[in-house]
Write a structure and sequence with these properties.
The complex is a heterodimer of chains A (about 230) and B (about 400). Chain A is an alpha/beta fold and about 230 residues long. Chain A contains seven helices and ten strands. Helices cover about 55% and strands about 20% of the residues of chain B. Classes of the chains: A alpha/beta (about 230), B alpha+beta (about 400). The interface of A and B includes residues 85 and 112 of A.
Chain lengths: ~230, ~400
């Protein structure tokens, strides 16, 4: 397996001295293609900041970050936007679907910014939504969908550009236990088909679906271990 | 980036906030409607003034009291000064200046007339020499004009317009009847062809009597103007110079003006242009205010949709994609307002056509569309720029 993510001595500071706060301190992480990693830690541990930097949503104050072998920590906003668009899929706790917009249009949104034409957008989105069991719901708006369905639309949106990695930030934080299991099963099956998944969570139960757990505390990696994945 | 999708989502955003969008556009609606209406009124007025002058022909010159025209401005002009022209100036010119077809004195006023106890106010009153008819400015429908003899002997005869016939004579033939003008009875001898209205004034609401009668019977002792018809249009400038020199022997430069019909038209158009400019300028301020309203509501919209902006950025929207999206929304708001304003202005100018021949020109339409698009762009840029500069993680974090 080749290396997808390689972060060296990442430090993220907010504010100016003397009110400076250190969110991440000298974190080094390597994640290979095809891994299913859970980044866990209590709130305020810095796990969200880590995910933002790894997901190219934010830049580190210090350190180097190689994404698919390319140093990206100093890239321009537009270059980062392009990497997010083509290589990364995001799933958020609050789904972040566009209201009053159909599941189909929500799912195809990344393709819009990639400049893909209308017919291809439609057919790709339909295919992915169907594979997630939403073929009957393509024309429904988020308000007409259940929490689990909404998150599946968000997963479809994350998958549509066939990204190198999917970041899921507390993907089960806003759904019930049963739905939570369903969603984690989806990530598991996506991983089995070769997708690299990184889940950020404070819930140890959720982390058990992964094959590797990185624990972050006070801006540092506390532990990093492989586990036997849950069936 | 697919522009049709941007338009779809922009319309969607506007549709969701219908009332807010309408109120925001109202400034633009009012601004564009008033600018277009004023321009179309101005265009209409200009046309009717031009046609009025064309009726007199291009071979004519006017002598007017006071200094009117280029350089003098309007404030110091004409009517405010004592009129020092004399009726005898017309004879003087006719005898001493070459290439003249005719010279006529004219006195102008507003009067009331009466027929069998029925009174009509605000009638245009004109006293002219018999020579005036040769200019062809007025044509007869029936009867006759007064003669030179009737003029010089100050006969009480009158030629009336169609409106007088309709209102006072109930459409009956008035020829030979006695019309009371300023307390004295005049015999109606002719009826003018219908002229319609110019600048909202009914040109058929008129009575014309001999200038000498106006002088002796009523007491107009000085001409309001002297109209000179040239034998040919080539002689216009020679006549203008000669007349200026001749009258200049008696009067100083600022006591009289000799204007060609072209110059008179220029002056009328300049005055109209200034008045129109002031009104359009005032109306344009409401466009500015409307633009500020759009800016304001777009800022609110950016704040409300911070999460949406964050999400769009997270999944790959570039700053320029967000900028364009919000800019297009602002332009659509403004342009829709502009088109509604244009529709209202067109309807209003059709409605006032009865009084003033308002004309909505292609230029005015282009101006309305161009201006509202410009206002939307200018006032949409700042909110759109703010949206485009939002940090994706900050935007996603907001509730």
């Amino acid at each position: 397996m080749n290396v997808l993510i390689s972060a060296k001595n990442l430090t993220k500071k907010y504010g100016e001295a003397p009110n400076e706060t250190v969110a991440l301190e000298n974190i080094s992480i390597e994640i290979k293609n095809g891994e299913f990693t859970a980044i866990v830690g209590p709130s305020g541990s810095g796990k969200s900041t880590l995910m933002h930097i790894l997901g190219c949503l934010d830049k580190p104050t210090e350190g180097e970050y190689f994404f698919r072998g390319r140093e990206v920590s100093k890239l321009s906003d537009n270059s980062l936007a392009e990497i997010r668009n083509k290589q990364i899929g995001f799933v958020f706790q609050f789904f972040n679907l566009l209201p009053r917009t159909s599941a189909l249009k929500n799912a195809e949104l990344p393709l819009l910014y990639a400049g893909v034409d209308k017919e291809e957008r439609h057919s790709k989105a339909l295919k992915i939504l169907s594979s997630l069991g939403l073929s009957e719901r393509v024309n429904s708006t988020p308000g007409q969908l259940s929490g689990g369905e909404q998150q599946r639309v968000a997963i479809a949106r994350a998958l549509i550009n066939n990204p190198s990695v999917i970041f899921a930030d507390e993907p089960t934080g806003n759904v019930d236990t049963k739905t939570s299991r369903e969603i984690m099963k989806i990530f598991q099956s996506l991983n089995k088909r070769g997708n690299t998944i990184i889940v950020i969570t404070h819930d140890p139960e959720v982390a058990t679906y992964a094959s590797r757990i990185i624990t972050v505390r006070d801006g540092k990696v506390e532990s990093d271990k492989k586990i036997k994945r849950r069936k | 980036m697919d522009f049709s999708e941007i338009f779809v989502s922009a319309f969607e955003a506007i549709r969701i906030n219908k009332v807010r969008s309408f109120l925001t556009s109202l400034g633009i609606i009012i601004g564009v409607a008033s600018v277009i209406l004023l321009i179309s009124l101005g265009t209409g007025l200009q046309k009717s003034i031009t046609s009025q002058f064309e009726r007199l022909g291009t071979n004519t010159l006017y002598i007017m009291p006071g200094n009117i025209g280029e350089g003098a401005g309007f404030a110091g002009g004409g009517g405010l000064q004592t009129n020092k022209l004399k009726f005898s100036d017309a004879d003087l010119i006719e005898r001493n200046v070459d290439n003249i077809a005719s010279v006529s004195n004219g006195v102008e006023s507003i009067t009331s007339v009466e027929y069998r106890g029925e009174k009509r106010n605000g009638v245009i009153f004109l006293g002219v020499d018999a020579e005036f008819w040769t200019t062809g400015a007025y044509k007869l429908d029936s009867g006759r004009f007064f003669s030179k003899a009737e003029d010089s002997s100050a006969k009480r005869v009158v030629v009336v317009g169609k409106t007088i016939v309709e209102k006072l004579f109930a459409g009956q033939d008035p020829i030979g009847k006695q019309l009371t003008v300023r307390g004295k009875r005049y015999q109606v001898i002719g009826v003018l062809e219908e002229l319609g209205s110019v600048v909202g004034q009914d040109q058929d609401n008129i009575v014309i009597i001999p200038a000498e009668t106006a002088n002796l019977q009523i007491g107009f002792d000085r001409p309001t103007w002297i109209l000179i018809s040239a034998a040919s249009s080539d002689a216009i400038s020679q006549i203008q110079d000669d007349v200026g020199e001749l009258i200049g022997k008696r009067l100083s430069d600022d006591e009289f003006s000799v204007l060609t019909s072209e110059e008179s038209l220029d002056i009328a158009e300049t005055i109209l242009g200034v008045v129109q400019g002031v009104f359009v300028g005032i109306a344009a301020i409401s466009l500015l205010v409307g633009g500020i309203g759009i800016s304001n509501i777009m800022l609110v919209s950016v704040t409300e949709r911070t999460r949406e902006i964050g999400l769009r950025k997270a999944i790959g929207a570039k700053n320029s994609d967000i900028l364009i999206q919000f800019l297009i929304e602002a332009v659509i708001l403004s342009l829709t307002g502009g088109l509604i304003g244009l529709t209202l202005a067109t309807a209003a100018s059709l409605a006032v056509r009865v009084f003033i021949p308002a004309t909505v020109t292609v230029e005015a339409i282009a101006l309305a569309i161009g201006f509202s698009a410009l206002v939307g762009t200018v006032f949409g840029v700042f909110p759109a720029y703010r949206a485009s500069k939002l940090e994706p993680i900050e935007a996603l974090r907001s509730e």
